[in-house]
Specification:
- The chain has 121 residues and is an all-beta fold.
- The chain has no helices and eleven strands.
- Strand 7 (67-72) and strand 8 form a beta hairpin.
- The termini are far apart.
């Protein structure tokens, strides 16, 4: 079974920083795109940032120049460094990844359980 486990969320004041981590574990042959999404109360889940297997990145306009996504393939981990946090960044942040569990199986999309990020004003 493949699992994505997030960590690093918490409460921070506006202008502060947090780093989210998401580690993939289980039966994994390869990992393609990885990313972070977030969902605030009453809102739909939205893309925050993605990173491809070739380290090509994409960001939501609302987080450009403040957030940085990166990955460590040896650790099967994706990170989200969040700087200059704003109250509107408050949400549950979810890790997402496209994973091929074995050579003979297709790619599946997986979600983590989510981690709360709260930014106080």
């Amino acid at each position: 079974q493949v699992q994505l486990v997030e960590s690093g969320g918490g409460l921070v004041q506006a202008g502060g920083s947090l780093r989210l981590n998401c580690a993939a574990s289980g039966s994994i042959f390869s990992i393609n795109d990885m990313g972070w999404y977030r969902q605030a109360p009453g809102n739909q889940r939205e893309l925050v940032a993605t990173i491809s297997g070739a380290d090509s990145t994409k960001y939501a306009d609302s987080v450009k120049d403040r957030f940085t996504i990166s990955r460590d393939n040896t650790k099967k981990t994706v990170y989200l460094q969040m700087n200059s946090l704003k109250p509107e960044d408050t949400a549950v942040y979810y890790c997402n990844a496209d994973i091929k569990p074995s050579f003979y199986r297709r790619i599946y999309n997986y979600w983590g359980q989510g981690t709360q990020v709260t930014v106080s004003s």
